[in-house]
Amino acid sequence: MALWNYCLLIILKNKIFLLIVNPVSGTKTHQQAIDLIITYFNNHNITLKLFYTKYKGHAREHCTNINRKLFSTILIYGGDGTFNEVINGILSREDQYLPNLGFFPGGSGNAVMHHLKKLDIEDACKAIIDNKIQKIDMMEMRFLNYTEYSINILGWGMVTDIGILAESMRWLGTARYTIASLFYIFNIKKRYANIWINNKKYRDDYLFILIANTKYTGKGMLIAPNASLNDRLLDLIIVKNNINKFALIKLLPKLFTGEHISSQYVEYKQVKSIEIIPEKNECLNIDGEIYGTTPVKVNISNKKLPIYFY
Predict the structure, then answer these.
(1) Sequence-ordered strand ranges (E) for 100-187
(2) Which helix (H) or strand (E) holds 266?
(3) Per mean pLDDT, which range of 3-12, 115-124, 130-139 is the poorest?
(4) Which residues lie across from 238 on neighbouring strands?
């Protein structure tokens, strides 16, 4: 009996967290980072149960089906798209399962980790061990027949065009985004749309519209300098099609410093909701992945997401 009680004490003392790993995210040199994470948590009496994704949508599928009794914490090593999959997999469940989430920078852009200021693996480990949890805002994106969630960004227009073209040129590495951007600077499309900002209607020809919950998008672009994860506001960046090619070339580098919000061509404001209804429906850029389509209405969800807040 004494031996059984001792074994039970050991089981209860050691926590088990789920670690979801996207092995093809970012630079694909993940093993050293995973070994560091495992060692760090083992040294703090936490066992990690690893799950490696094998295809796009696998993380979402897994989170939809895991036994809620097994894990009160889920950790994710991957990019913003992998974080998005996990969040939507959890929130698509009907049993109200809502574990604490911890993030590691394993992507090529790492926009969320830029916002959290945790681009170092060991720093991210320490933040999780410190067990400081906050409930953060999520963007709720309502499409015609379904609802999705995001903690990062939603983009329509040129930002989506660039993402689609860049994806087809992955063999060029990070240079593909520069090349794709230059292509669309010299091949600007006209995009007329009706948009509703806080239920007020506007109509114009837009170059792009980006809705942000975090300060960053892409690889360190400070797209929304005033964004906060718990202010219950969306940060809205609008660029209309009244900008010439030369001005656009000068504007793009300012996206990395936040200086773009002072440009005469940029409208930057914090809003409660925005709805986009273009003349022609198109794909969207959501957390760095191309999926979903207009029309779409975005607001801050009534649901909050518990994360290890860095």
Answers:
(1) 100-105, 133-136, 139-142, 147-150, 153-157
(2) strand 266-271
(3) 3-12
(4) 209, 267
Taking the CA of residue 117 as centre, how many other CA atoms within 13 Å lie in the half-sphere pointing to its CB?
2
Is the entire prediction scored with pTM above 0.85?
Answer: yes
Exposure letters 184-216 (e unless 16+ CB within 10 A, then b): bbeebeebebebebeeeeeeeebbbbbbbbbbb
Edge-to-edge strand list for the sheet holding 46-52:
46-52, 15-21, 73-78, 100-105, 305-308, 133-136
CA distance 150 to 148: 7
Residue with token string 């009160």: 72
For strands 234-240 and 266-271, give the pairing: antiparallel
Query: In the structure, what pLDDT confidence band is assigned to residue 76 with cuts at 50, 70 and 90?
Result: very high
Kind plus residue range of the DSSP H or E element containing 159: helix 158-167
Identify the band that residue 28 occupies on the pLDDT scale cut at 50, 70 and 90.
low
DSSP helix/strand/coil, 273? strand
